[in-house]
Automatic annotation (TrEMBL):
Top-rank taxon: Bacteria
Membership in a protein family: Belongs to the BexD/CtrA/VexA family.
Pfam families with a match to the protein in the record: Poly_export (PF02563), SLBB_2 (PF22461), Wza_C (PF18412)
Protein name (database record): Polysaccharide export outer membrane protein
Subcellular location: Cell outer membrane
Location of the SLBB domain: 137-214, 223-307
InterPro entries in alphabetical order: Poly_export (IPR049712), Poly_export_N (IPR003715), SLBB_dom (IPR054765), Wza_C (IPR040716)
Keyword field contains Lipoprotein: yes
UniProt entry keywords in alphabetical sequence: Cell outer membrane, Ion transport, Lipoprotein, Membrane, Palmitate, Polysaccharide transport, Porin, Signal, Sugar transport, Transmembrane, Transmembrane beta strand, Transport
Membrane topology recorded in Swiss-Prot or TrEMBL: Multi-pass membrane protein
Outer-membrane lipoprotein Wza C-terminal domain boundaries: 310-324
The keyword Flavoprotein is annotated on this UniProt entry: no
Length: 345
């Protein structure tokens, strides 16, 4: 690693960056220092208990050989019409039983309670209970999902993978690298893309009532490809991993008539160049191993990929052009953030 001072007459700007060749050794060092993604043990330790009935749930209570108790609205009616609603205060009314405090009980506990009270009026009652509809425990969703309707916690445990799958991911707008799960006033940040290759993943995280899932948009998670490429553009991150080869490919590749093979650079830290030196990674695209190296070099959000023209010799001239660019990127990000906040108020 060396400080870039290619032009002594412009040393004031040369001190603002460090030039690092992109080599197989650099790739190996980066991979060795990369920490594998993990899940907070507090999430994987949670295992749902038996479902607890709550206010708003509707129950279908069957007393065998007693249709007048099972279907007071008539057997020809749909099951929902004969459902018993748990009131907001957690109580439930049932003939000959009266008011029962059902909230907080499991289905089996409520079945036993109703059976015990019915024995005064019905000989050896056989009671069965099923939940017609759920309303008391929900998981809320927001962000770049296709469907953001709340999802019910039911007698069948719900995992994070199932919730995300049911909601659907907007493939063009979503950023899977920083999904936020809020539980009990705590936020857990999860890289779903990386976890899909890990030993433990979203299928191992069970959800509970009151959880919320936020899938961020990728509009503030971008890299910028400029210079001698066919389609200079800002590239949004859909996953946590974007290689240099992929970034150049999305920009249409190098302009074969004007690009210089050795002048492929990745500038990192451009947003703070006036405060701290940036790191500039250089790829020798004329090398036979360049394609393999570029396919393993990860571009990060905020990086600027620059392809220089043939014959470029003054690095500091380009660095001086990056300084106003860094302000432009920062201002654009702040403006988008303010717009997002205003739209939510």
């Amino acid at each position: 690693m060396k400080t870039g001072e290619l032009n002594d007459k412009e040393s004031a700007t040369g001190s603002r960056y460090q030039l690092v060749p992109i080599t197989p050794k650099l790739i190996a060092m980066d991979r060795a220092s990369t920490v594998a993604p993990g899940i907070d043990p507090a999430l994987t330790a949670y295992r749902p208990d038996s479902y607890r009935i709550g206010p708003g749930d509707s129950l279908y209570i069957t007393v065998w050989e007693h249709p007048e108790l099972t279907s007071p609205a008539g057997s020809q009616q749909q099951t929902a019409a004969n459902g018993r609603l748990v009131r907001p205060d957690g109580t439930l009314f049932y003939p000959y039983v009266g008011l029962l405090h059902a909230s907080g009980l499991t289905v089996e506990e409520l079945r036993v309670a109703i059976t015990d009270r019915l024995t005064k009026y019905v000989e050896k009652p056989q009671v069965d209970i099923s939940i017609v509809s759920y309303a008391s425990q929900k998981v809320t969703l927001g962000g770049a999902f296709v469907k953001t309707d709340p999802q019910d916690i039911t007698v069948t445990p719900l995992t994070l993978a199932q919730a995300v799958g049911a909601a659907g991911v907007n493939a063009q707008l979503a950023d899977l690298s920083d999904v936020v799960l809020r539980r009990d006033n705590h936020e857990y940040h999860l890289d779903l893309d990386a976890l899909s290759h890990a030993q433990q993943g979203p299928q191992d995280i069970y959800l509970k009532g009151g959880d919320s899932i936020y899938l961020p948009y990728n509009d503030r998670h971008e890299a910028y490809v400029i210079g001698e490429v066919l389609r200079p553009q800002a590239i949004s991150f859909k996953t946590s991993d974007l290689s240099l080869t992929q970034a150049l490919g999305r920009a249409g590749g190098l302009n074969q008539t004007s690009a210089k093979g050795k002048a492929v650079y990745v500038i990192r830290g451009v947003e703070d160049m006036e405060k701290a030196p940036a790191t500039i990674y250089q790829l020798d695209n004329t090398s036979p191993s360049a394609f393999a190296v570029a396919s393993k070099f990860s571009v990060k959000p905020g990086d600027v990929v620059f392809v220089g023209p043939a014959g470029i010799t003054r690095w500091n001239r380009f660095i001086s052009q990056l300084l106003p660019l860094s302000g432009l990127i920062s201002n654009a990000a702040n403006a988008q953030y303010n717009l997002d906040r205003d739209s939510q108020l």
